[in-house]
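Let us practice reading a record.
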Amino acid sequence: MTTDRIYRREIIGSASRLLMAALTIGSFAAFGWVATDAVRSADGLMPVRWEPLAGAFVLHLIMLFALMLLWVRVLSAGWTPDAGSPAPPRPRLYAAYSRSWLARYIPGRICSLAGRALLASRAGVPAEAAARSMVIEVVFTYSAITILSVALLSGTKIHLFLGVAVLISGFAVFVAGLLVLRGIMTADRANTEPCSLWRRALRWADRFITGGSAHSFSDILGGVCLYGLYAGMHLSLIVLVAAAFADLDISLAATLAGAWGLSVTLGWMSFLAPAGLGVRDGLAFALFSQVLDPATAGIVVMSSRILMLATDVVFVGATELLTLGLTQIARREAVQPGLDPRLTGHSDHPPSL
């Protein structure tokens, strides 16, 4: 390698590190701006009810475990292990998910996604299958959150019937789009003629997105329903947090939920900011301030961030304990005579970092 190439690589590396540092500082500064307004009035904005905050904590913990189980289910549906290599034990997949979860707080969302793919590959999952499962997770999750958010805002700000129409038509279009995409990609599977560039691209997309599996209408509908349920829980979370600091009616609760959903989606799209820090919080604060006084809006946003961070840490710790317990149980059961170790999820190696 020439000196010029080494020099250019060092410059690019230094520039990327500076960019990540600037994004991190900017994200924390934006969050600090939101938090400052809340702290200024904190004396008069202590939670009037602690029960909703406790409920929000429990709900978020349930959401994280549900999302982890959904990911494992999506991974299993899109990948069939070879005959000579059994499927990896579930505890190792749980560990891969939880250990990559806190990587969301590292600038650049790719750290979390790449970390999960790496840990899953160490458990025996092909990188392509892990990447496919994460793409499906992201598309289904944030599509459902966006549809629900737009429907809620349309129903509260324009008309209730419009909100219902947006909800039904949004999910109908989403399901129809997935079915059309599946039909386009799988239509050419049986064709053995020489491939054009377009057909090669379709076959690559078919292999990457579907894994060669023929997902039925019921599979797609089931995925939409499950991720739609998760999205509804996500929007309910901010309502519980806000209910601890303000009296909410149905209209105000729906408006806050819709605004929160849009903030979550746009915050995820700003994938360079760690866990959407600053972007999601700033957008939520700006939208909440339209229906709440700025001090209350600020304390709600700040409390939601702190609560979710605390729940993330508890989730990772609880999953580690669950993984350790399941591994120990599997090892004890695997030594029983006549019991197939593959049925117990036994592995000779514990989950690795």
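A brief commentary: The chain is about 75% helix and 0% strand.
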